Amino acid sequence: MPPSSTASTRSPLLWVPTGYFTMALGYTMLCSVTAIMFKNMGMDNGRAAAYSSMLILAYTIKPLFAPLVEMYRTKKFFVLCTQVLMGLGFAGAALAMSLPDFMVVLMPMFWLMSFIGATQDIASDGVYVTSLDTRTQSLYCGVQSLSWNIGPIVASGFLVYLSGKLHTAVFGHDAATFGPDWMQAWQVVFFIVAGITLLMAFWHLRFMPEGARAENTPTSVGGAWAILSDAFITFFRKRGVWRMVAFAFLFRLSIGLLEKIGPFFMVDALAKGGLGLSNERLGIIYGTYGLAAVLLGSVLGGLFVARRGLKRTLFLLCCAVNIPNVTFLVMSIYLPSNLFAIGAGVIIEKFFFGFGSVGFMIYLMQQLAPGKYATTHYAFGTGLMGLCGMVTGMVSGHLQEALGYVSYFALVMVATIPSFLACWFAPFPHGEGEQLEASAGTEQAVQQV
Questions:
Q1: Major facilitator superfamily (MFS) profile domain: which residues (predicted)?
Q2: pTM of the full predicted structure?
């Protein structure tokens, strides 16, 4: 795939939005939408949540293999290769669904694709950081964030909606019956994702810049390991590090328990304690209104912290993340049939989740990350968050099946207590408002993981 001679002169608007949309589309399909697909195809909640959550691992540990991306070829080369492989992988997954024991083939494929997708994230971030100067990075930060969030809207909203429409209107099956009949609809969805991803690869071949190599890039696996080893050592020497680790892991504990089970509750039959929604309604409520509420909450949460400061607001932000989860407990008790009431419950939970989660990211930037390996230590913090989501997701379905929806959502509320404690005792070793600074030299070798 030869580089384009004019790529470096193209506007970032030609590749930043499409690059981050493609990253988010693959991640959301693998780590979120697959849970709904497994559920539709007749899998119990325990296995559906566990299988989907396993795929988060690669995105959690990507700091460990990020330096290898720096060592070989160009960042654009990795972006193009991973996008082509992801496109072929989604097409292969659609074909694999026709096999008699398709899960034996499908899960290893998804597992491999998750590592390819994580590599795509590393390389795409690398192109963004090394192709744009600091001022331009700041200028396009909003475009970057918005483009990423369009990915979940398309995947969790439009494509989940489309799966339901195809299942009933095109293939003529009963929306309320889960089982193998759903395979046809999801095969079409996966072929669509494959087509979009391959199209983006060809687009980026033409318009994406190469991306510069970072300074002091490791030239061997041993050199990369030495950098990571030093980053780990310096991380655990930070003042108050274990309380910061507890904060990073526990802040979103209840959200991790709710993330997979919330949509399952929406589509499960009334006889099983669910709300009995179709995929079409789930896509509209969860993937469109819910994600719009997250975006609005994030903007307002950022303004709130900017005006009042993080230290004064952190516990309030923790309350915003955790307390509105009670809406699912209320819905599981009363089982509303009114779509306005159901949508309002989801919007409230998602809005306050977006509002409060801003505090988590800012805390990592201002308190956990600063130092010699600022970007890497920030990645460690987000990795702990991902680890929490993976662990809670893997056990959530089994717990829900054992407890039922009402008792499970009560357990979710109990799980807010560790979050409150971790937030209350979170240390502030750096001054209020201290900014995250990129470190020099070896830090750049693992930048943007």
A1: 12-430
A2: 0.85
